[in-house]
Description:
The structure holds two protein chains of two kinds. By secondary structure, chain A is mainly α. Chain A has helices spanning 3-17, 21-42, 46-62, 73-90, 110-114, 119-128, 131-142, 147-154, 158-181. Chain A has two domains: 3-90, Rna Polymerase Sigma Factor, Chain: A; 110-181, Arc Repressor Mutant, subunit A, CATH 1.10.10.10. Chain A contains nine helices and no strands. Chain B folds into two domains: 83-247, no CATH class; 256-449, Porin. Chain B has nine helices and nine strands. An eight-stranded antiparallel β-barrel of chain B has the order 1-2-3-4-5-7-8-9. In chain B, strand 7 (395-410) and strand 8 form a beta hairpin. In chain B, helix 7 (171-184) packs across helix 8 (195-212). The A-B interface holds A 19, 21, 24-25, 28-29, 32-34, 36-37, 40-41, 50-51, 53-55, 57-58, 61-62, 103-111, 113-114, 117, 119-120, 122-123, 126, 137, 141-142, 169, 172-173, 176 and B 1-2, 4-6, 8-25, 28-29, 31-33, 35-36, 39-40.
Amino acid sequence: MHRSTEAEFHEVVRGCCKRDRSSQNALYRLFYPYGMSICIRYVNNEADAVSVLNEGFLKVFRNIKKFDAEQPFKPWFRKIVVNTAINHVKKQKKFILETTMEEAKNIPASEDILSRINYKELMAMVQSLSASYRTVFNMYVIDGFKHREIAAELGITVSTSKSNLARARVKLQELVNTKLSQPYV
Amino acid sequence: MSDESPKKLDNLFRQGSERYDFEYNAEAWAAMETLLDKDARRRFFWWWLGGFGILLLAGFVLFLGNDQAGSIAADQEQDIIENSKPNEKGTLKTDIENKGETYIPENKNEIFAEQKTNGENNLSNKKELPLNSNNIKNQPQKNNIPNGHFPKGEKNNAEKTTPQPTNNTPVKNIKKEIYADIKTGQTISQNNAAPDTFSIFEKNKTAHKTNLNKIPFLPLAIIKYNPKNGLPPYPPTIKENANKDKKDSPKDNSKKQAWIFGLTAATETTSVGTADYSDFSWKLGGHIEYRFLNKYSASLGANYIRKKYDVGAGEYIPPKGFWTNGIAPVSTDARCNVLELPLLLSYYPKGYSNPGFFGNIGMVSYLMLRERYTYTYADPAPDSIIAWGTDNEYQTWFGIAQIAFGYNHILSEKTSLQYLPYLQIPLAGVGHGNVKLWSIGMSMKFNFKVK
Lengths: 185, 451
């Protein structure tokens, strides 16, 4: 972040501390795309993602005074939004699913795939997973949780977490392969 | 399974997740603003409730403190009256009870015998009085102060220094002299008293100072000098004072009753449920109040307010068959003009004539003068009712409980200003939708004593 931009950002945060609506709007504008990219992975439609994101932003606005201005904002924001999304999914209570681990098949390099599959399609694949697979996959692969943490967070066993991840990978690989097998349009 | 395959897959989705391309959504921000507004109202409500709770707690503590102090004062007063009555031997109970603390007579009979000898003592007969210097000379003197006379330079010191109840102090002797005064009921002036009697007066003062530390309260006598009749009797007997108090008491009671006329202005917010407070409304009205027993009052008021509130799905319950095809709206916007009639009982721990905290509790009736509702449906049918209104159709008698705690600010003998945060709790539904309305507000009352 450039110095001028950084100063402006701190001004926005100060405004949010004073519950200034225009500052809140500015922060919302700034982090809406990023927040949505997180939320959309955990729910299966955009309306729910907006609802989860707004809930996350509400927590951000309520606790903005606790934010250390010396630290980067993005990880702090991400943590709040991810936790909000996980809490939202937890309410669904769809995690207890023991499955045997299945092996994933070889797939081409990601850059090759990304040249043929756009981000929205990838996210659509993730959204198509069941809640239990999707949540574990997101937490482990994208948001960097350990299986132990996932198990503790979702109230499942570590083996369930691992098996759900494996199942999610298999499912996603199938979807990617299907997509790649389709002719270019 | 290749070890690299899962990693490749993970990287694919990790990279994909970073390439977000969502654009700012104005509708999402509108929803966010609604959330923020609701949060602000919820925060306000909890702050208000917290403040109200603190005030209530402070009032309760004040009430307890006042009640305890009042009972202690009453007990002390009663004790003093009881102890001030001379017994058959002419000795005050207080003195006997306190003898272990301030006065320890070596020989109690000596005192009574002396008083008996003096009989119905009259100070005019100075020879027989123990106040007489000759009599005092006969008392055991354990200090170096000559009877009836202070050595030069010691007189003031004697007044300033509080004598300790030790064997070296003349407290015992001085106490006897005080008894003589009370017993005879006579007064002594500086002019009339013999020179040595005046000196004893000075000593009596010292003794009084000593005893003041032990006696919390003594009834004060008002002595009026009449040159024709000479000096008035001193002190007026306790019995006379008691009678005087009794004569005055009915007059005091009449002062403790009053009729008050008051004007009320308040700002209030209303919610269906406890946390969805909408806009503030103004409330204006008046009340009459009857105050009694110094600390209590009963009041009846009439306030006009235009309430504005939002009703959520399922909270608006109209008469059966009102909704077209049974489809209820998801939200209702309500605008109602209400005449509310509060009937309240107030308690002033410090008395309503004094500034201080006070509280009231009571029931409120709502007379719905005008009701206007606008309904919003998730999936409106063509013939769904969009809006509905009625005038003077619904009344809720004593369906709302009100609790308030505030401060009574005295402006003058006849006027006062009261600041009163209040909470209204629904016990029954109100209006056409039979909604449970919670209200919180802050009222200011100007009171004028009319009688």
